[in-house]
Design a protein that fits this description.
Elements: H1 2-68
InterPro entries: ADIRF (IPR034450)
GO cellular component, one term: cytosol
Protein name: Adiposis regulatory factor
Length: about 70
C-alpha cells in the first residue's frame, strides 16, 4: 500500500514538474517574441528616419545646385 502511495506521489510530482517546465518554456517564448517585435519596430523606425533624412538632404542639395546656375 505504501508503495502505491509513493508511486502516486511520484507521478504527481513528475506531472507538476512537467507542467512547470512547459509553462516556463511558454513564458520564455513570449519574452523572445516580444523582444523580436520590439527590435523590428526599432528597425522600422530607424529605416523611416534614415529615409526621411536622405530625402531632406537630397532636396536641399537639389535646391542648392539649382540655385548655382541662376546667380
Amino acid at each position: 500500500m505504501a508503495s502505491k502511495g509513493l508511486q502516486d506521489l511520484k507521478q504527481q510530482v513528475e506531472g507538476t514538474a512537467q507542467e512547470a517546465v512547459s509553462a516556463a518554456g511558454a513564458a520564455a517564448q513570449q519574452v523572445v517574441d516580444q523582444a523580436t517585435e520590439a527590435g523590428q519596430k526599432a528597425m522600422d523606425q530607424l529605416a523611416k528616419t534614415t529615409q526621411e533624412t536622405i530625402d531632406k538632404t537630397a532636396s536641399q542639395a537639389s535646391d542648392t545646385f539649382s540655385g548655382i546656375g541662376k546667380k
